[in-house]
Design goal:
Blueprint lengths: L7 E5 L5 E3 L2 H7 L7 E5 L6 E5 H12 L6 H10 L4 E3 L6 E3 L2 H6 L5 E7 L2 E6 H23 L4 H4 L1
Antiparallel strand pairs: 1-7, 2-6, 3-4, 3-5, 4-8, 7-8
Length: 156
Amino acid sequence: MVLNLIGTYECKADAKGRVMFSSALKKQLAPVLQEGFVIKRAVFQPCLELYPMKEWNVMMEKIGKLNRFVKKNNDFIRRFTAGVKMVELDGSGRLLIPKDLCQFASIEKQVVLSSSVNIVEIWDKDQYEKAIDDAALDFADLAEEVMGNLDVDELS
């Protein structure tokens, strides 16, 4: 099953770092809820990434093919997996974000859950708004650079 998540959802984190998932997002994640998730620091942004276990295993398969006798590969693996934790939604549909990861992403109260194809990005609301505003300036150029070289047939 291909997971193709849709939507951006605002919610609140409580004092313990628990975030209530919206019913719309929970419904999309229903097929993978039982398997649990992996949460980690994002590589390029001050946010967290929530991988359904199946998606995490696909990523680890790719990373597992890296030659560990190449120093930069080892350095990458160490940084990519730094702070990684297994998590699951509790019976009330809440996700407990570990304290160290809340600190990394500056998550305190207002949270944005943003779908990113097959994972969910977890942002502090102010950081998310800033990232979107900053990206808006370059988005036309970025869109052309990333998607402009693709043949129309490749997109369908």
